[in-house]
Amino acid sequence: MLSLIAGAVGDRSARGIAAAVSRLITAGSLPPGSRLPTVRDVARELGVSPTTVSEAWGSLTRAGAIRTRGRSGTFVAGPGRQRLRYAQLAAAAPGAARDLSTGVPDHDLLPDLAEALRRVGDGQLTTSYLDAPVLPGLETVLRARWPYPPARITVTDGALDALDRVAAVLVRFGDHVVVENPAFPPMLDLLDTLGAAVVGVPVDADGLLPDELAASLTEFAPAAVFLQPRAHNPTGAGMSARRAAELATVLAGFPDVMVVEDDHAGDIASAPAVSIGTHLSDRTVHVSSFSKSHGPDLRLAAVGGPATVVDAVADRRLLGPGWSSRLLQAVLLDLLTSPAAVARIAHARDEYARRRTCLVRALARHGLHAPAGDGINLWLPVADQHAAMLTLAGHGIAVAPGAPFFAGPSTGDHVRVTAGLVRDGFDELAAVLAAAAADPAAGGGARPPAHPRGWR
Question: Short name of one Pfam family for this protein (predicted)?
Fold first, then answer.
């Protein structure tokens, strides 16, 4: 087997070794259950350092291609795979009377799609399978809303579909990719599936920390940086215009690194749209989602950025779904231009801000300090995640565990609470959350840190 692996490796970088072994696994030359040679044996055979092989093995492990069994060795994985982080969120507390784990918008704050559908009617929107992927009227409105002038715009079936397709264009097996730490778990799942080596960079209230980003770019030479410019999930952080300029200055020294922005909260975010694309338009792909603001069932997000990336996404979709429903695009166009719908979205944005503020203030009265942030979620520090979730489950309350959000070293135990679903009873809920956050070993008297490491 050692000679088989050595013969397949042309590029002796960690990425090249991982890609070669991946090809052997896919071809069946390394069947499931096969024990791989030791890291030192492979390194000796290839004439590289054990660190290089370890990094390759790490990429393969994250992608689910191989598994380590302690002292027994490392083996080619079978058909089963590690459970997605996203699934761990969904299983937080099944059957809870009050589910605050979901991260979804309040249905009652969404605009009425039925009215928009009636206004749109049939419309004769599709005449050919090769029509433009975006309705001309919608593209005009999207361009007017975009935080910088994009070379191309297309529409996909939601933000995750957009991120999946953009990542497939930019990221190759074994590439390093910078993400926020903490980050959105499905984004981490997507990168794991691609076999990327994820590098987590901490955030503060203004977004990614520039010095830490510069260090990661220098050390790992990543293919891309994925970030959330506002209403960061889970912390609620929002990238300021000053921070965007600082990050652009850092990135300017690394011309091969692309930036992908996931503006998932869209019109229900209180902060204005800010983008690194204002400074680096030829290297920034911006994803604007309408699920949380206008309706999850619309399944629509817009992708704008360099033609090389956006055209590749649109062309690849021709071999699959072809395009996102032009009927639903027409509904979105109606919602973006109807005065009544625009007013309803503005009301929803204000109401989410009110709910978030009320809960943060109530928590502070009970001695639990959480970043106010933006969007529909709160990121709460707790002494013990498992104990906190058990306590809350005993009260019929489900929250999301913090562990699946971390892309690197944990900055302490947390839970994510969907504050946007809390309409009233803020003080009562805050009392329960504060009690759950307390250190169980201290008899409920101790509190978790007011400002955990990594949040400055």
Answer: Aminotran_1_2
